[in-house]
Write a structure and sequence with these properties.
Layout lengths: L1 H13 L2 H16 L4 H17 L3 H18 L5 H16 L2 H18 L2 H17 L3 H18 L5 H12 L7 H17 L3 H17 L3 H12 L9 H14 L1
Helix pairs in contact: 1-2, 1-3, 2-3, 3-4, 4-5, 5-6, 5-7, 6-7, 7-8, 7-9, 8-9, 9-10, 9-11, 10-11, 11-12, 11-13, 12-13
Length: about 260
């Protein structure tokens, strides 16, 4: 079961979204046949991560609610619960009101910090940075992402290092005084890290951010070429949000 979870998350990062989904479903089937509720919580955590990366908001909501229900019913108060609560806030921010969701995520972060659960702290900080970006809160978002980067450096955790640098770049571009130079450097750092890790899904996201910025600066040919290069690498997952967005951006840059 745990091998399927690891394989699912690794497959997504490496650029194989369909294989990732197939593996997480195998893990879920094994967990459902088990009487161990902790196994179910661990699988739900993996399902939640993968669903969030796929931007499947309905699935994130289902997995988060199930995590909270099982956690309370069986007395599990570990990092599963604050992460699930933060995910629900993230879904709310995506479909409704980012500012209203900030309080939920900040409360989840305080809970994770009280438990001293580092994986949960890192996960919730990444969500807090993103929701601040959605809310247009540049300063608070930069504070969250810089703390996230600092903690990853301290702990040696690099699993989501590339998207953290991408988020830094995205945050630097919002507000009245965007810093395109620093944002460009952050996006290129994200791409470099993703390539070192062979994390094609993270590379695609960072490349889209950089391509949009380059296009705004008048460098459409460069933007199109770099995006086409990474997009054409993929052989599956064309129904996922990221690849649909990449195709739409490519069409726009080619018009």
């Amino acid at each position: 079961m745990f091998g399927y979870i690891y394989s699912a998350l690794s497959s997504w990062c490496l650029g194989y979204p369909d294989r990732a989904l197939a593996n997480i479903r195998k893990a879920a089937a094994l967990a459902e046949s088990s009487a161990n509720r902790m196994d179910m919580l661990i699988v739900l955590g993996g399902e939640n991560d993968l669903s969030a990366w796929r931007r499947d908001l309905g699935a994130v909501r289902r997995h988060s609610n199930a995590t909270i229900e099982i956690g309370f019913a069986h007395g599990f108060t570990s990092g599963f619960l604050p992460t699930a609560r933060a995910r629900l806030g993230w879904v709310r921010a995506r479909i409704d009101d980012p500012r209203a969701a900030l309080g939920e995520i900040e409360a989840a972060l305080a809970e994770a910090e009280h438990q001293r659960d580092m994986p949960a702290i890192l996960s919730v900080l990444s969500l807090l940075a993103e929701v601040n970006r959605l809310a247009g809160e540049r300063a608070a978002g930069l504070t969250a992402v810089k703390r996230l980067l600092s903690l990853m450096e301290q702990t040696g955790v690099e699993f989501c290092l590339a998207p953290a640098h991408q988020m830094l770049g995205d945050l630097l571009l919002i507000g009245e005084n965007p810093d395109a130079e620093k944002a460009t450097a952050a996006f290129r750092d994200a791409i470099r890290i993703a390539r070192r890790q062979q994390a094609k899904s993270w590379e695609l996201r960072a490349t889209m951010s950089l391509a949009r910025l380059l296009a705004k600066q008048g460098h459409r040919d460069e933007a199109r070429a770099m995006l086409a290069d990474i997009y054409n690498w993929f052989t599956e997952g064309f129904d996922t949000a990221d690849l649909k967005d990449a195709k739409a951006l490519l069409d726009e840059l080619s018009a």
